Amino acid sequence: MAGDAGSIPELDQKKYDSGEQVKIICLGDSAVGKSKLMERFLMDEYRPQQLSTYALTLYKHTATVGNKTVAIDFWDTAGQERFQSMHPSYYHKAHACIMVFDVQRKITYKNLANWYKELREFRPEIPCCVVANKIDADLKVTQRSFNFGKKQGIPFYFVSAADGTNVVKMFREMITRAVEYKQNPSDFMDEVLQELENFDLEEKEDPEADEVGLKTESPELE
Amino acid sequence: MSFEAKRCGVQFSPPSIVLIYQQKETKDVRKRIIPVRNFSKYSDCSMAAEGLKNHPRHKDYLEGVSQSQLEKLHIILRDHMQGLSLEHSLASFRLDPDEDLNQLDDDKLARKKGKMDELFEKNRKHKDDPDFVYDLEMDFTKTTQEKCSWDEESDDGF
Ligand SMILES: Nc1nc2c(ncn2[C@@H]2O[C@H](COP(=O)(O)OP(=O)(O)OP(=O)(O)O)[C@@H](O)[C@H]2O)c(=O)[nH]1
Ligand SMILES: [Mg+2]
């Protein structure tokens, strides 16, 4: 599956390498309100692109960060188990991640650990946040401190897609962090890839390197 | 003439939506039985609900009934046509906070979301509301103190 990363035929993910294109993904269990949050943030502006085979919806948005205009693609997928096979391409090249749970359902909070683990397998360093949605249902939850974010050292937001509390704030901060990350990526994976590329180059200059570790077909074996 | 919907339900035979409403001027309470036509156990409940909501002869009466409720009533009718019990239909709408909704298929998940929509719509602030604020912010950092019980029993890496 890892080899398929980025290979959704309908989508060209190479564009996310360019300076002005940012990709932000949204994770969380079914029905925690991921789509409603996107819709609340984008209001009428949104023209989602539906890719129902992958249970994927893309929302496009333009924002100004500093003095730069950036085009943001929000990737929203269903929490349903049967869609999880598309995840490698979902994570591919993402610059930030919004993780959502439903304050009315403990199981969605507990599952954050799984979502987070999977995220970090693919994107070890991208900015991430935890969002407690549906606080309108019971404002008392905002007196409780949910430790998952603190434990992982990532920001935490109490929000409501229904009445709009903190939705815009959360999205704006995540957009800024995504852009910052993009300008200054520190992702371990990216570094490993770069080192591999360097190694590759050295190798070509120095034929003896072939004997070390890399099994290349060499005529001397005969 | 305007009407206020009081209650809305179903009748299995012939399949119909039943509406109890009040005539606003006269205060008369009446019952309206709306037969559900061209509807089978294979029909799309969401489309059927939309059709009824916009039906020229019924739409004035149904103004106070949300489309998601009409969809729910159609689901009950369709379940009945498929031989499922009313108890089964009602249970499928019920929200169990411990249920893992990731395991449900589209239809079952839609039922749960339909139920969640009731509160969502009730608490929803619309862009046309006079007190609507797009960028609504609230700071909860001062009010959060209690430890959350969800963080206890930490055998799962929490
Ligand atoms: N009260 C309340 N209900 C909400 C809120 N946000 C979402 N909901 C309800 O939760 C339901 C599910 O929301 P969705 O946005 O569809 O959830 P999702 O995370 O996109 O779900 P999947 O795409 O199936 O994984 C909605 O139908 C709403 O009824 C909120 O802020 N408050
Ligand atoms: Mg969704």
Automatic annotation (TrEMBL), chain A:
GO terms for biological process: cilium assembly; microtubule-based movement. Residues 212-222 have a biased composition (Basic and acidic residues). Residues 203-222 are annotated as: Disordered. GO terms for cellular component: cilium. One of its GO terms (molecular function) is GTPase activity. Belongs to the small GTPase superfamily. Rab family. PANTHER family: PTHR47978. Keywords: GTP-binding, Nucleotide-binding. The keyword GTP-binding applies. It comes from the Eukaryota. This is RAB, member of RAS oncogene family-like 2.
Automatic annotation (TrEMBL), chain B:
Keywords: Cell projection, Cilium, Cilium biogenesis/degradation, Cytoplasm, Cytoskeleton. GO terms for cellular component: centriole; centrosome; ciliary basal body; spindle pole. Its main location: cytoplasm. It comes from the Eukaryota. This is Centrosomal protein of 19 kDa. PANTHER family: CENTROSOMAL PROTEIN OF 19 KDA (PTHR31539:SF1), CENTROSOMAL PROTEIN OF 19K CEP19 (PTHR31539). It comes from Gymnodraco acuticeps (Antarctic dragonfish). InterPro entries: CEP19.
